[in-house]
Structure formats: structure tokens, C-alpha cells
Amino acid sequence: MSSNNVVRVSSRDKRKTYALVLTNAIERPASLKADQSVTFGEAARGAAAPITAWFPSGSQIGREFIYAR
User: Fold this and answer.
1) Beta carbons of 15 and 38 less than 8 angstroms apart
2) Structurally, how many domains does the chain consist of?
3) Of 38 and 4, which is predicted with more confidence?
4) Residue 55 needs a FRET pair 20 to 30 A away by CA distance; which of 6, 33, 44, 61 works?
């Protein structure tokens, strides 16, 4: 089974899966640079910023990540 609402992050050879993340479809913001494929959220000082959305190259529709809090 597959779903358009799940993004799989894996190694190049696809042997290792790092994450399966639930997402929602989102339109690419007009303010986003053409070569920018991800957007980041806020994080505590010293912590990695979470990726909030991913936009495949050349696509106007991306995936907004749903994180459990």
C-alpha cells in the first residue's frame, strides 16, 4: 500500500529508511526562491531547525511535514 501523504527519506541505494513522515499537500509560496527545495521552522538555541516543507524540483506543489509534538 502507498499514500501520497507519506514521504519516505532513505539512503541513495534505498536500503536504509531514515524516516516515514506524514504530510499535507501545500502550494509553493511565491516568495520561495526557485532553487530552494525546503523550508525550515524555528528551533531552540543549539537544536537543529525542523524541515517544515519540501518542494520537488520544478513543482508548484510540495509536502508540508506533520510533526507530533
Assistant:
1) no
2) 1
3) 38
4) 44
